[in-house]
Design goal:
about 40% strand, 14-stranded mixed sheet, 3 helices, binds calcium ion, about 5% helix
Length: about 725
Amino acid sequence: MRAIGLTVLVVTLGVAQGCATAPEQTVEPSELSEAVFDQGLITTQDEYEAAMLAAQPGDTLVLANGVWRDFDLVLDAEGTEAAPITLTAETPGEVVLSGQSSLRLGGRHLVVSGLVFKDGYTPLNEVISFRVNSERLAFNSRVTNTVIEGYNNPERVQRDSWVVMYGQNNEFDHNHLSGKLNSGPTMTVRLNSEDSQNNNHHIHHNYFGPRPVFGSNGGETLRIGTSHYSLTHSGTLVEHNFFDRCSGEVEIASNKSGGNTFRGNTFYKSRGTLTLRHGNGTLIEGNLFEGQGAPYTGGVRVINAEQTIRNNAFRNLTGTRFSGALVVMNGVPNSPINRYHQVDGAEILNNSFEQVSTIELGEGSDSERSAVPINSRFENNLVIGSRDQTPFNLYDDMSGIAFADNVTNLEPPAEIASGFNLVGDGAPVDNTIGASGEFGVAKSDTGVEWFAKADERSPFEGGQVTLVEPGQNKIFEAIAQASTGDEIVLQPGAYNEAKSIALNIPVTIRAAEPGTVQLSFERRNLFQISADGALRLSGLSVSGASAPDNVGNSFITSSTRGGPGNHIVELSDMAFDDFVINRAFSIVTAAKGTFFDRVEITNSVFNDVSGVPFKFDAETDDFGIYNVEYLIIKDSVFSNVRGSIASIYRGGRDESTFGPHAFISGSSFTNIGAGEAPLAVLHGAQNIKIEDNTVEAANPVRFVITTGIPKVSYTGNQGVDGTPASILVTEDLRK
Ligand code: CA
């Protein structure tokens, strides 16, 4: 940009040039050279600030293409309805805000479009905020055609939200928000001052891309309101958005205010439910909940008064309990504002539930949540269960819900049966029953056109195959050259690694022929996984004998150094031996603040290990945070392990997560847990399976129940002589 002093490069779009009240630093367009004016691009943060301060109704501020680092972007200006002030990109998608960048809007009639936030994280509480500060909010303003992708604080527990709406009459549409990993809802609407209530916001045609399991409360994709202002009218309209695998926690969306509308949205393969957590008088209409049979997929969870759920389609949902296709909660009598208000006046009409696992009525009933639903109706619904029993579960007296003119395929419980006609699966149904019309929105009609939406490919697919010969540091060198999804095939022979390998992409490393590759390593960790790191190992024989004598060695560990991630480790046909150089050697360990989606061990052998082979117990501060969603051990052999074979810790009492899961099956355990150590420690696990294992010289598994109603499957375990063995001891810490 040429030197033109305080020149402000304001492109005035068809507005009369007579800005009588133009601030004095504005250079009248006629004084600018034609060349500068044609260019019209803002290329530095200082230029932007000067331009913004001078902006008049009808002006457009255009950021030049390129990467803008650490840009505290503020648009604080007053447009008019006929002539808004616009901030946009030279080319949509080519203006990237990275590092510690953020955007704040204040004033009226502002429009922002075309920006991309990636490769960084916000230093503030939000990435895009519809306020400059608590005094200066945005009204009648719009953010559109903008992307936030993977813009995550490297510390998972650091809380922020990507988009926060304040003020009134604002619009957020055709944006793409994908891959949030750290704590805090992806998007929130705040009602924390009078100017942000009765807000009339419109949130539409956005693509909410995958939000993987967070591993604690705080993984919602959208939250409207908070318990504190929940009895206040909000009036936000959420329509035609696509929620793609938004599975952070039990609430896909958490409605915590009154008078909102969710219309025509698609919830695709998303765990949990749209939860009417607080506030009254919300309408849920014309939405599609399509679970595709994925785990924990649910529909709507109903709490509070005057909620209407009508003409929605609920399909292929496997969730139960808090993630049922429909969950009507019990309330707390005279509930405090942050607990559960009684369901009163719910209207559940003309919905189609097709291939759903459960509809939960009076869910949460206990000595505290004893207020059953009242004055409610469940009418003209079609309910086709996916199992061999009715999907309806009644946990309390449901006489406060009037059931009438519904159709179902499986005999419902006697208490509500009079409100149903039975049909065979697939039989034609009167068209006044169930939902009709169009539901949800197509993925392609949401988000932006110029930024690809997430696909459903395995992270281990799509790369190249590289053959590697045995020798020194050969795996380190291969990983240094590897790209996402690559497969490294080790030729027979001995491999020794003197360097630790930082892994931030998914890769597969496998023996060309199982059992022909010997691997040793000389550092306390061979693999340090961060960011998108995921590792599939197959067919290797690994020795820990060359590792240093450090307490806390672990063959694989996680790290926050390269950013947060949801990691996967798969070990199959592996043999581990001689992990005893120090007294606490592990195979896979989670560092505090890190998370594994899945650690899966198949058909592998572990002998002589001094520590806990699978150690996911770094979150000991009882915040409900944990380190692994699924630990799966099957068809494997463990012998001479001094620690427990696995340790999982999930403290805290909130009911926000489906995990951790620990599935241990078809394996044998001999001489485990020298002294007192249990075979495994599963503290706070929500779902355990211990099936068909053989055990000799080991203490039982210690399972500690801290919250919720864990699923437990325990069967077929035996001693080496074939007699049934009791290898599970349960402790219950719930009240
Ligand atoms: Ca939550």
